[in-house]
């Protein structure tokens, strides 16, 4: 079955700098890759997603890139702000599959 | 507000007991997912239903069971509870299947003493 590895587990960046979180997946048939943000004590919320027919997607300060050959995808947050502090989860979904496999999460700290 | 309702918000019970967690999906969503999140842990997939039928199963213990009713609400039953079952249990719904974004409820925090 699908396996998703996420790195790093913890990331601290200075406010205003960029943050990058990387994920790898094992199933080459996976074709949908969402990212969820979970603030402390709250529910996970979708922040961006990408499908396998696209290499990059941007939404303001957030971007996701996908390398199908290498089977990895990354979340990029630019000009980080204090409200970006949270746990971020990547996920992968196989074509014709109803299992959404999450990575173990990255705790992002934005330092003042 | 995600539109997904989970009850109760908190549940405290003793080892060996049985509890039922309830989830009402967003209006129009046919898929319901259950996840377990232990302290500082990731989201462990338990089970998924689509329009009343079980669609996918994760690492769900035999002591746990779930179902989705004709009105699309879902219940997760946890029995013979152990201390290690203490966790935050999330329900999520999506319009179709896993290829659609998930909308999470606020979770039920279960404490087993």
List its salient traits.
heterodimer, A: 112 residues, mainly beta, 6-stranded mixed sheet, globular, B: mainly beta, 4-stranded antiparallel sheet, 0% helix, 50% strand
Briefly summarize what is shown.
The complex is a heterodimer of chains A (112) and B (113). With 112 residues, chain A is mainly beta.
Order of helices and strands of chain B: EEEEEEEEEEE
The number of E-state strands of chain A comes to 11
Mean pLDDT of chain A: 94
What percentage of the residues of chain A does DSSP assign to strands (E)?
Answer: over 45%
Using only CA atoms, what is the Rg of chain B? 13 Å
Shape of chain B: globular
**What portion of residues of chain A is helical?**
under 10%
| Oligomeric composition of the shown chains | heterodimer
Task: Describe this structure as you would to a colleague.
The complex is a heterodimer of chains A (112) and B (113). Chain A is mainly beta. Helices cover 0% and strands 59% of the residues of chain A. Chain A has no helices and eleven strands. Chain A has strands at 4-7, 10-14, 19-25, 30-38, 45-51, 56-59, 62-67, 72-77, 86-94, 100-102, 106-111. In chain A, strand 6 (56-59) and strand 7 form a beta hairpin. The model of chain A has no long low-confidence stretch (mean pLDDT 94). Chain B has strands spanning 5-7, 10-13, 19-24, 31-37, 44-50, 53-57, 64-68, 74-78, 87-94, 103-104, 108-112. In chain B, strand 5 and strand 6 (53-57) form a beta hairpin. The model of chain B has no long low-confidence stretch (mean pLDDT 94). The chains are: A mainly beta (112), B mainly beta (113). Chain A binds chain B through residues 31-32, 34, 36, 42-46, 49, 89, 93, 97-105, and chain B through 2, 31, 33, 41-43, 45, 48, 50, 55-56, 58, 90, 92, 97-99, 101-107.
